[in-house]
């Protein structure tokens, strides 16, 4: 189940307030700056800092490569926030 584009346009990381990558096929939102992953359960993003999962460097590398190769959608589109692979946290 994919997230509504209007929801993606306003979602931000609850910790640093920056954009997230949305991996629909993995049902997760990912913050590459903090290496934190937020689950999407039944189409609802779980945006609780306490439930976020910190990913290890290998998983961060995989997600970064996947985002670049597959043009993964990002939240806060049009906000002027820094975006895309290579945006901090590496």
Account of the protein in words:
With 90 residues, the chain is an alpha+beta fold. The protein has a single domain, classed as N-terminal domain of TfIIb (Single Sheet). Helix content is 22%, strand content 19%. The protein contains two helices and five strands; from the N terminus they run H-E-E-E-E-E-H. Strands 1, 2, 3, 4 and 5 form a five-stranded antiparallel beta sheet that branches. A hairpin with a 4-residue loop joins strand 2 and strand 3. It is globular and about 30 Å long.
Percent in strands: 15-25%
Mean pLDDT: 88
Report the CATH architecture.
Single Sheet
Major sheet summary line: 5 strands, antiparallel
Summarize the structure.
The protein is of the alpha+beta class and 90 residues long.
Question: Could you give the topology of this structure?
Answer:
Elements: H1 5-10, E1 21-23, E2 28-31, E3 36-41, E4 44-45, E5 53-54, H2 57-70
Antiparallel strand pairs: 1-2, 2-3, 3-4, 3-5
Give structural attributes.
90 residues, alpha+beta, N-terminal domain of TfIIb, 22% helix, globular, disordered C terminus
